[in-house]
Write a structure and sequence with these properties.
Blueprint (H helix, E strand, L loop, with lengths): L3 H45 L24 H7 L4
């Protein structure tokens, strides 16, 4: 019959072949999902642009100088020396 060393080599090669095939299959599925999800995201973004009109309220940045006018009582109190 076949000696044990020869049979061990065949089993190692068979096991490695299965591991390699499964690894390539998993990587292929992951890459396919990556491409699919990227395309799906692009479709979603382009679809949402159909509903954007841009007719909302214009953004005005927060400015602390506009909160309290310079002529207010508050500014007079903090700018005058303490008596």
């Amino acid at each position: 019959g076949i000696n044990a060393e020869y049979m061990g080599g065949i089993l190692v090669f068979a096991g490695w072949s299965v591991w390699f095939a499964v690894t390539c299959g998993v990587l292929g599925i992951m890459e396919s999902l990556s491409a699919f999800l990227h395309a799906l995201r692009l479709h979603w973004v382009e679809f949402q642009n159909k509903f954007y009109y841009g007719d909302g309220i214009q953004f005005i940045p927060y400015d602390t100088n506009t909160l309290v006018p310079k002529e207010s009582e508050f500014h007079r109190q903090i700018s005058s020396p303490a008596s």
